Structures are given as structure tokens and as C-alpha cells.
Description:
heterodimer, A: Cytochrome Bc1 Complex, Chain D, domain 2, Cytochrome Bc1 Complex, Chain D, domain 2, two-stranded antiparallel sheet, 13 helices, B: 481 residues, alpha+beta, four-stranded antiparallel beta sheet, 41% helix
Amino acid sequence: MTSQAMSGFWSLWISVITLGVIAFCWWLLYANRKTDKVPAANGEVETTGHAADGIEEYDNPLPRWWFIMFVITIVFGLVYLALYPGLGNYKGLLGWTSTGQWQDEMARAEERYAPIFQQYAQIDIRTLASDPAAMQVADRLYQNNCAVCHGSSARGAYGFPNLTDGNWLYGGDPEVIRDSIIFGRNGLMPAWVDMLGERGVDTMTHYVLGLSGLEHDAAKAEEAAPMYQAICSACHGVDGQGSAAMGLDSIGAPNLTANSWMYVQPGQSVYDSVAFTLRHGRNGLMPAQARYLDYGVELPNNLRSLSAQEKAELLPKVHLVTAYIYSLNQGK
Amino acid sequence: MTEKIPTKDVTPVDAGQHRKSPTTGGPQGELYAKRRHIYVKRVQGLFQKLRTGSNWVLMLAFFFGSFIPWGGRQAIFFDLPNRQFHIFSVTFFPHDFMLLAWLLIILAFVLFFVTNFAGRVWCGYTCPQFVWTWLYIWVEDKTEGSPNQRKKLDKQPLNTEKALRKGAKHFIWVLIALATAIAFLGYFSPILDLIPRILSFDLGPWELFWLGFFTFFTYLFAGWMREQVCIYMCPYARFQAVMFDKDTLIVSYDTARGEPRGARKKSDDPAAKGLGSCIDCDLCVQVCPVGIDIRNGLQYECVTCAACIDACDQVMDKMGYPRGLIRYTTEEELAGRTTKILRPRLIGYFIVLLAMLVAFSVALSNRIPVELEVLRDRNQLLRMTSDGMVENSYLIRIANMDQREHSYTLTLHGVDGVELQGAAVYTLAGGEVRQFPIQVIGNPAQLPGSPAVNIEIRLQSQQDPRIAASRESRFFIRSAR
Ligand code: SF4
Ligand code: SF4
């Protein structure tokens, strides 16, 4: 992280004004020292000439403790300016930065909470998923990191999968969920309109609707069946059961028989959505979350080949969120 | 409106040993005014007794208030880290700060009312600044002796006796300050746990800081600054004058009766010598904790502690004169007229005060110890389910501000055809705050044609149906394209 330095002029400008104001304060204090007016013979004391409601203002000196407080504030100001960055580009003797303070606070929080997270890291994901206290902590992690895309109830949104319906793009096994979170996912559906042609897109859409048991034109579906087996079944499976069901963890081709559609916009028909997908393709990206959830952890190159236990200890917050996502799908 | 009190010439009649006016006293060209140390003489008498009584009550309340137990914890406990403020059976949360604001306003009006009626009785009998100052003066008296002995002691070069006496005084002062700080901290950190931790030097950095802070400032304010706090720092002292009128009780010297002042023997007949009742013994000046001469008239430094009344009454008794040369009186009375107690301003203060007290009690007794917040998901307005239903997500946050566990039933109102999904009952321990995601779901074909409708989410405790809360939110049916 780099901080934007000021140009020499502005740095000087600020320093001169800051120190100038302090010098002015000191001068003001000194200039207002008591020049005690000697009372005239008749006992009249000269006032400042200010009068309000007939009350005149004397020119009395400051009480000593008050004067000392002014001196203290001036000294404090100078010491502060020497220790902390306040004068333009001057860094201060303590080398304090707001970034540094934030890092310190993070480190302190880490020190305080790490033992709790490490304790959870020792517990198997399936067991952890049924521990209400752990899930409360995990819920907070989820709401802060994941809810922005998947929704506070994890039921997904347009373009973001529902995480509660037991229907997985990449598989719902705890270790697979963990990997999805750590490394992220990139699901790519190519555009098929060149291969299928306009009529092919239409008939194939009917075929896909049929797989999920939705209302469709059976004749058109039948027409598309050979094409489906030739092209689509490679990823979506011969029965449309999706890549996860075939044990292909990293493709992410959805199950077409589950009547679960990630790209249906409100008010849009499933037909329109599927036809759009076939014509233009889709590109879904889930960013790798390890660096955000477990902020500051050094990720080793062999992360993929670590054992489940090693991953849990290295990335305890990912471990908790994994258990949370897993818990949402119990009984589905 | 009552007239303003005319300003008085307060230049001392005799600028003798006491209170030199700063404008006439100091040498030229100084950076600041030197403070004259006031050697306060302790006095016995009716008002001093009153004050001792009120001081005892207040100090006992302060020092031992935190020890009162209440259902497994201390009765008055301000739990800052958890932002919960327990006062006996009620627990306040940050959202109750409105109540605190009202309470402070009410206290301000109490102050207006009392000040208008009886002047600065707050300063004289109850203000912690002076309660502690009197305590410190008492210690001073016990360790260093009377004001004359103290003056002599201060002039002496350092010797064993001086060191011992001074040392004892400061030691006791610091002890009192430390006890004060501990008692104060005890309202924020459980006192029964705090005391052993202090004895074993096992304090957190903030506890240590506040302990030092309050010890230091108690010692400084009550030991060293005393009347300086009242004269220069206290806002009340600065604005109390605007609440005064001619019918306000003040401590005053009866000039008509006292002057011309002068020394005399007890057997002398003052009338024959052409003297008033004041024997110019200066006792009223010696006992004054703010170092003024009440005979110069009403002065803003005067905290109406009535020490001078006690002193003067003693003298009057000794001389065989009637008491009350210095007394509680009013401007009107001094001018020979009668005091009007029931005056529009006082009645006004009273009515406002009464109205606010009633409003406050109603607000307090109607306070519902539960809070419900409903936050719509921000990234999406609605979601279509595979069977054509429309679904909206919300995060609800429930704060159980009661001291016991509650199970709350959540219900949805406002539109037919939408219903709540997710748990219908939420159980929270006393003082617990949690958030839960919920869904509201409906069939767009059966809902109004508008893009969105208003819904109302209600929460009701199963244990106490009066404890309920409700929030409005929006339910989006379709995107308005
Ligand atoms: S002037 Fe202020 S600090 Fe002094 S006794 Fe009165 S209220 Fe207290
Ligand atoms: S003048 Fe009298 S009442 Fe006022 S502060 Fe002094 S002793 Fe107290």
C-alpha cells in the first residue's frame, strides 16, 4: 500500500500554517499578559470599554492554572507534531500510519479470536454443521462476506446459485464446498447458436424444458435429442443430471433435471432464459475467497494437495463457512 | 418579567488582608493572576450540620451504591463493552438514549426551579465539587490544625513536623481520591470483582487509566483547585445568575443593620458609639470557602454554603445581639418589601417540570423491551423460484432488552397471498441481540399489479403479549421495467 504524498509546495504550506498558528497562539498569550492598570486616585479602574447591559468588562489577568493549561496545550501540540505525521509529508518520529494501526488491530483481533477458530478447525465439518454456537459465528462470517451475492438467506439471486436447495454445480461434499470457497469457480457455457442454428436453439430449449418436466413441445424436443447426446451430454450427462453427479468436480455444468434455473430474471419465462443461454452462452465466476475470509494468511503453493485437516487449520474461517453452507443443505 | 438585579459595586470596602481585587492588587506585567491561597476556617452551626448530613447521605450513596445486589449482579451496573446499562430491574440499551436526554433536560429544569426559588443550594449542600472540598478541608484541619496554624506551617522551613503533617494530609487526600476512583469504577466494572483485582494489581489498561484519572482529578480538584473550579470552570456557576430574581433566596449581609461596622466591647452600647451590629470580627470572611467578603454584597463567587451565617450567628449570640445579621433572605426583603414566593416565573418552571416528569414516567412505563429491525437484502429486489413464486429476502434483527428469556412469534401482515418462510418463533436470552434471515414468498399471479406492496412484520413475546414490535417494509412482486 502506498500513501499519496503531497507535493513539496502543499507540504510546506501546511507546515508553515500549522506552526505559524501555534506561534501566534503563544504570541497572543504573551501579548495579553497583565498590564495591570493602576487605579486612578478616585479608585476608578480603567475597563476594556466593553459594556453589555450596563456591565463593564475589567481587564483582569488569567488565573494561573488557566494560563498553565494554555502552555500545556501548546507544548502538547508541538510534541504531537514531532511524534505523529502532521506537518505535510513529515512522517513523525513514531512512524505511525493509519494502515499500521489497522494492521495492529487486526493482529490483536487475530490473537484474541484465533484460539476459538482453531478449536473449531479441529472439528469435522459434518459435526461442526450441527453445533449451534459455531453456526452463529459462521452466520456472521457468511453475512459479512457471502451475503452480498448469495443473499442473506443464501437462496441465491439472478446469476448467483441458491446454496440451500441441495442442488450443486460442483458437488455438495464438504471437501468440494471447501475447495469452491478457497479457490473459487469459473463455470463456462459456450454459445451454441453457430452449431445449432436458430431452429436448433428453439428445439434444444424444448428438450431442456422437457428434462425438468416443464411444459414443452414434445416433437421439437425429440428433434433435438440426437444433437443433445452429441454435444451437450459431454458436460451435462446423458440424462441431463449435470457434471457434479458424474463425479466431474470442476466443470460445473448444471443439473438440467432439477428445475432450478439460475439465470431466470423476474418476469422472464424459463424458455426465454434457456434459449438465451444456448444462443449466447454464460460465464459464471465465483472469486477465490481464502484471502478475504482468512485475511493475512500466507497461502502455500501446494494448497490444493493439502489434507482436509491441514486446510482446516490453515484457513479456519473457510472451514467454518464451509460447515455453514453444508448445514444449510441438511435434509435436502 | 421580573426586573434584573442591578449590578453592584463589589470593590472591597477595605482592601485589607483579604481579597485584593486583581485589578488593583497585582504588580504590572504579569503573565497570569496568582491565586491567593484561602485558609478556610471550619465552623459549627445549623447550616454546617445540614451540610454534614447531606454530605454523609450523598457519599454513602456514592461509595456503596455499587454494592447493592440485584438478582445475581449488582443493581447499578453500566456495562460499556456490551452497551447495556442495568439499573435495578430495567436494562437500558443505546437506543434508549432518548430517555437519557429527557432525563437530563428534566434535571436541568429541576435546577432552574430550585435555583430560582432558593438560589445556589445545589452548590452549597450537594455539589460533589464542594462535598469533596469540605471533606478535604476537614482532613486539612485534622492534620495541619487551624487556619492560623496552617499559615504558620506554610511559612516555616521544612522540618520534621511540617513534613509529617503535610505528608499525612496528602496521604489521606490521596487515599480518599483513590477510594473515590474505585467507587466510580465500580459502576462500570463489577465492584466485587474489581476490588480483589486492584489489590492484586490485575487491571486492564482502561481500568488503570480511569483509576489514575479519577484519583488524580479528585485530588487536584478537592485538594488544590477548590473554589477555582466553581469560579472558572463550572458552567452552572456562570449561568445561575440568569435564574435569579429579586425573590430568590440568597445569603446576604444586612447592610442597614450592620453598618457602620466597628470593634467594640460587649458592654458597649452600639447606638451610643454610632455603630451598627457588625463588630468587624472578620469571622465571616475566614470561614468562606471561596474567599469573599459577603459584606460586599451578592457576588458570583458565593456558593451559598451559609458558613458565614453560622459564623456570624455565633458572634451575634456572644454579643447578645439578635441573630441574622447575615442570613438567608431575598433582595426584596432587604429592600424592606415582602418576598413573593409564588411568582409567574417560578410557577412556569414548576409547570414545565411537572409536565415533563409526567411525560417521562409515561415513556418509561410504556417502554417496550424489544427492538425489531428489518433490513431488505440490497443486492436484489426479488428472486423467482422454480415454481414461479416470487421471493424476497430480509435480515431481521431482534434485540431482547428484557432481563429474561423470551420466545417471540413473528407474523406477517398487510397483504393477502404473501407468507413468511423460515422459523416462526425466535428465542433469545435476556439482553441478547441476534439477526436472522427470513423470506417472504408469494404468487405473483394472485398479487396486486403494482411492482411492490407494503408489508408489516410483527413480533410478539409469548411470555408477555404486551412486549411486541412491528416494522414496515416493502415486498417486491416484479421488477418495474
Ligand atoms: S459553582 Fe459549580 S462546581 Fe462550584 S459548587 Fe456550584 S455547581 Fe459545584
Ligand atoms: S459568602 Fe458566605 S455563603 Fe457565600 S460562599 Fe462565602 S461563606 Fe458561603
